[in-house]
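Quiz preparation item.
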């Protein structure tokens, strides 16, 4: 589903440079995934989402504006999760 959504986004906007990366090898776990993504990423803004993250449609524009106004190269943001109520751990963390 996500792979098709990314493909549809890329096809609908020729100025949008977007890629779906799926690693079969989990070497380095999340840090390894970030490293693999940075090898192919280019541009002024790199957004990283976990598979269960679901940012709002305006997320990237809001973050982009904040990055350009700040002196720091990174922004950490809060967003909702698709699986918030699907596991005992997620329900306990509330």
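Solution:
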């Amino acid at each position: 589903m996500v792979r098709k959504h990314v493909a549809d986004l890329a096809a609908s906007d020729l100025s949008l440079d977007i890629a779906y990366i799926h690693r079969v090898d989990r070497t380095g776990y999340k840090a390894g995934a970030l490293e693999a993504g940075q090898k192919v990423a280019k541009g002024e803004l790199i957004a990283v989402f976990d598979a269960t993250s679901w940012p709002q449609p305006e997320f990237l524009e809001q973050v982009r504006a904040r990055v350009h106004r700040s002196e720091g190269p990174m922004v950490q943001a809060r967003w909702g999760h698709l699986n918030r109520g699907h596991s005992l751990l997620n329900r306990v963390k509330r």
